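user: can you give me the structure for this one chain? tokens are fine.
assistant: on it. calling the predictor now.
[tool input]
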Amino acid sequence: MKKCRVLSKECKDLTYESSFMRLHSERTSTMVGYLLQSSRVPTQYLVSIADSVKPTAYSPYVSYFLHHRFRVVAAANEGLVLCSLSKFGGDSFYVYKPTSNEGGEILTPPNPRFRRTKISMLVLRSNPLRFKIVRLSDSKDDAVDLDSKYSDEEDNFSVLSNEKSWHCEIFDSKSWEWKQSDDLKLTCHYSFMNTQDVSVCGCLHWLMFNDQQDKYTILSFDGDKEEWTMTSLPDSLGRKTHRDDQIAHVSCEGKLGLINHSYETKMLDVWILNHEKIWIKKHTINLKSFHEKVLPSPSPFLSFSFYNADTLFMMDLGCKYSVWVYYYNFKTGELKEIYAGKFIDSAYFIQADSEPVQLKPQQYIY
């Protein structure tokens, strides 16, 4: 797929179309779908657009997880999955490629004093494979060192400066080790939204909200430069003007995108960030028929992402005892409904072939 996308812009655009993805998946045995995870039991399900009744709970792609009490904590579109034995703690991590059944590589645990808040994975190159894992920990959760004469001074500085620090640890597969980077420093008014990170264009992106300015912004981490930047949203989306509107950041045809879903008008606006760092409105999608058929009552718990250029993937988390997922082609109006099960709390997009990869550099294999 990546080879096709570097040929030309026309070829790149074609790879995101439904017809191309379907043919490519069939001819290359590529797994394309969403890895759903239950919050109550250590179970993962693979749900693809080809499923007509229910997700493939016992697919060979996820059999490794079903025999281990792992939690999926991050995933990369290229098919790598990051697992942990603990959802929040600082336990050992395991990286795994389900389609080639490679994994079990134990990553050196990060600083055990830090309580993980956010963890994300980014693939920088596929041949040879190189990926990075970014782990952010809120400094307010630091274990208190009673013997340190500096702890009170550090706390007082944070209060006086109106600053909030996030410890940043980075794992680089090239060196196969963790390193502690400089703390990410933000004002105390910024908070992470309860959404997954988005990995596009060599960067990781998080949606944040500033309660003092009453507006959203995008926090980005450049995987190569290991630098942080902030990007404002379009003027019409930046401020939290409508309480019932839903804003989320997504990956859209290989670019960073935004969606604004209005429960009042049942319309969904899609924006993309171009190479000049300017937001361009790409789509306005009418979801009235979807709401009338599937969600007659507004659900504030819809999760959105783009399966491809013309198909939305939506997950209704409004009822934890009965979670449904939907593939909606907004160009043809075709809708596919799939019952996902109970207590599903996350969905990770996976697109990967079955070709083996060398997860760990040769010099670090003993």
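assistant: here you go. Helices lie at 2-5, 9-14, 18-28, 63-66, 151-161, 235-238, 288-293. The domain at 2-364 is CATH 2.120.10.80 (Neuraminidase).
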